[in-house]
Amino acid sequence: MGEEDRYLHVALLAAAFLEMLTKSVNLRATSATRTGCVRHGVGHQTPFSGRGSRNAAADLRPNILHLNTEGLTADKISVIEQLAYKNKAFIIVVRETHCTTADKLVIPNFSLAGSILSRNHGLATFVHERLEWSLVNQSPEQSENEWLCVDVAGCKIVNV
Questions:
Q1: Between 9 and 71, whose confidence is greater?
Q2: What is the pTM assigned to this prediction?
Q3: How far apart are CA 29 and CA 32, in angstroms?
Q4: In terms of DSSP H, where are the helices of the chain?
Q5: Which residues contact 56 (CB under 8 A, 6 or more apart)?
Q6: CATH numbers and ranges of domains, the chain
Q7: d(CA 72, CA 89)
Q8: Integer angstrom CA distances of residue 113 from 3, 107, 123, 144
Q9: Average pLDDT of 59-78?
Q10: Beta-strand pair 133-138/64-68
Q11: Dihedral (CA of 135, 136, 138, 140) sign
C-alpha cells in the first residue's frame, strides 16, 4: 500500500468516525440515582449526579459542526456562524465549498486551518480562534480524492 493510499484509507476511516460523531446522538451522561429531581420527582434522570459531580468528559468533548454547503455564500456563512454559536462548536468542517480563492473562506471567531480550493468541490476546516491547531497533511493537488487533516489540540480531524 503506497503512502497516498494509506492517507486515503486513514481519511476514509476518519470520515466515517466523524459522521458517527456528528449524528444526533445525545452523549450526555445521565444519572440513574433515586434521589430524584425537585421538578420531576424521584427517579427522574438528570444530567447531574449530585452536587459538584458533573460529568467532566462532557465538558472536554469537542463540538464539531460538519456540513456540505454545496457552494459557500455570504448567507450560508452567516447561518454557519449562528449554528456554531448555538451548538457551541469549536471545529467547523465544510465540504463542497465551491470556492476558488481563500478570501471567501472567512467565519468570524474562527481560523481557517486548512482548505482545498476547487470550483466544483472544495474543502475547508475552521477552528475556533481560542484553540491551537496545525495542518498535518492534505491530498496532493489534482488528486482524485480531496482530503485534509488538521490537528486540534492533539485530536486529528480529517475532512474528506
A1: 71
A2: 0.64
A3: 10
A4: 3-22, 56-60, 74-86
A5: none
A6: 1-15+63-160 (3.60.10.10)
A7: 18
A8: 23, 12, 11, 22
A9: 86
A10: unpaired
A11: positive
